[in-house]
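Subgroup meeting minutes
Present: P.N., E.W., G.H.
Scribe: E.W.

1. P.N. recapped why we're keeping a running log of single-chain structure predictions: easier to compare across weeks, and new members can see raw inputs and outputs side by side.
2. G.H. added today's entry (310 aa).
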Amino acid sequence: MPFVTVISAAGLTMQFGSQRALDSLDLEVPKGVTGLVGANGAGKTTLMSIALGLRPATSGTITVLGLDPAKDAARLRSVVGYGPERNVLPEDMPASDFVKHLAEVRGMPKSEARGRASDALWLVGLGEERFRALGTMSTGQRQRVKLAQAIAADPSLVLLDEPTDGLDPVQRDEMLALIRQISAEYGIDVLLSSHLLEEVERICDNIVALDAGRLVAQGPLASLVGDTTTITAELVEIVEHPGAVDAVEGRLRAAGLDVRRDLNQLRVTAADQQTSLDAIRDAVAAEQARLRRVVVDRTTLEDLFTEAPA
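Output recorded in log:
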């Protein structure tokens, strides 16, 4: 039976001495491409290691594809691929042998593993380089090898920890396109860890945002950012029309708009940008207020962190 939610956690906590790496996380990772975002040290790698069964949580529960990583780690790793952040590739081993070996470790028969390793390396753009020793490859090529070994055994889910780390802008674009292709064409669900919010916005369907081990936000990307914009209208108090700023604010609220005020600045969160701009224009004209400037900003993932409570 297919799972709608590929990872589910309740009260998940990880304590390292006096440091709490994960703090009572309740989260759901749905199918598709999910971005696990947060600054370095937010708890992303810790969450992935618990999900893979590499370390037990201090408390709380987690299931991955319906399995308990603490009890079903071997079975889980046969259906989950993993691309680590660190460069842990054996320098002298050819890429094809490395990918083949890990496919066998995940339970693939030897008779299939070599062909599947070759297919995976061709898919990530290393078909011509597949017999090269890993130690002779560039950073970009090594990242592609890590992706190839993660998908070679035909997993249902892939966990990728900072897969664009160390890549230049062109290589980063190519890697992101590959990840999106793997999910769209082969039906592999992906949990992508990154501290680069912009790249996550480009390819992810869903978001799990962590900050210092705590959950900041989760859900579909479209519902967290989508087409929502923030319109800042800066007005000027004028002697001829005292209270005009208050009156404009009142008109906007009466129109059903979400308005936050900071002195003479009115910040309007708008689902329909043009309608909100028209309402601001009409309110300013009706109250004979003076408008200094209007700034329109689209809501981004960065706003989830800046607006989160401390």
